Amino acid sequence: MNSQHLKNTRRLLLIALVMVCFAAFGSQAQAQSKKKFKQKTKAKTTAVTTAKPGQVLICTSKTTKTYHKKKCAGLARCKTKTSSLALAVASKTRKPCKICYPKGKAKKK
Asked: 0.85 exceeded by the pTM?
C-alpha cells in the first residue's frame, strides 16, 4: 500500500468514528428531551380539562385575560393550572378566546 491510500483509509475511519459518536450522543440527547417533555405533559394533565355545561375553562396565570372551550389550542399553551368558571362570571372580567370563539362572541346560555 502506498502512503496516500493509507491516509485516505485513516480519514475514512476517522469520519466513520465521528459519525457513530454523533449518532450515539444525538439519540441520548433526544431520549432526554422526550423524558423532559413527558414530565411537563404529566404535570399539565393534573389541571382541569373539562367544564360542565354553562362553564368555560380559564388559565390561572396572572397575565391571561381570556376564556376557552375544552379543546382549545390557546388553552393548551397555558403553563399554569387551568380551572373551570361559569360563563357569566368569566365574561365580566375576561374576553373570549379568538381561537375557539372566532367571531369574538360567546354563546350565552
From this structure: no
